[in-house]
Amino acid sequence: DKLLVKEVQEMETTLPPGCKVKFDDPNALHDFTLTIAPDETSHWTGGKFRFHIVAGEDYNIAPPTVKCHTRLWHPNINEDGDVCLSILRQNSIDGMGWAPTRRLKDVIWGLNSLFTDLLNFDDPLNLEAAEHYLKDKEGFRIKGLNYDIILELDSMEVIERYVSLGMGISVGPRLASEPGEEKIVKIISMSNILPVEQVGII
């Protein structure tokens, strides 16, 4: 599809900082994974968050479908991975919904804004998370980092920083985004950092 070829090329040359896309099948440009690694200004800094994006047969009349594959505490993302974002709706109350003039790059920038712009409280998908932020910003930040299966973490330095705050760290193949990372421990809470070979695989 010439439209998708052009849009993918445009998307890949205009990615926000900290974002990357991966195509499991280079011939299936309609189906790809976006990984977002928020910067140090974000409540989710140090993590990686994966979104599965599919442009269906009715694209670009209809928006692509998006599912978040990393579980996190966020007003606009629920526990099932559903995402609340105006650009993903054909009928949006704020007038910023999908239109055929939108592009895949706009979807990428919109998803990235979930970690940079604070936050949609007019129509949150996760009302409990939105109320938590409004009542207790520090508590929200900590829960966002330590939510059941915690973020993928980029480095031992980042892991050590979170552990110093008294947080357990969980990492696992379900969250791995690079080949070989599935060899990291599955789901484990650590009171301190241990080498993988000492922790073992569970």
Word description of this protein:
The protein has 6 helices and 4 strands. A hairpin with an 8-residue loop joins β1 and β2 (31-36). The chain has a 4-stranded antiparallel sheet, with no helix packed on it. Mean pLDDT is 75; it is low at 147-151 and 168-202. 26% of the residues lie in helices and 10% in strands.
Map the helices and strands.
Blueprint: H1 2-13, E1 19-22, E2 31-36, E3 49-54, E4 65-68, H2 104-113, H3 127-135, H4 137-145, H5 156-164, H6 196-199
Helix pairs in contact: 1-2, 3-4
Query: Which spans of ≥5 residues are poorly predicted at pLDDT below 50?
Result: 147-151, 168-202
State the assembly state of the protein chains: single chain
Give the number of helices: 6
Strand order, biggest sheet?
A: 1-2-3-4
Mean pLDDT, all residues: 75
Helix content: 25-40%
Give the strand content: 5-15%
Gyration radius over CA = 18 Å
Q: Please describe the biggest sheet, giving its number of strands, its sense, and whether it closes into a barrel.
A: 4 strands, antiparallel
Q: What would you call the structural class?
A: alpha+beta
The coarse silhouette is globular
- State the end-to-end CA separation: 44 Å
Query: What's the helix-strand series?
Result: HEEEEHHHHH
Compute the number of strand runs: 4
Give a nutshell description of this structure:
With 202 residues, this protein is α+β, with helices and mostly antiparallel strands.
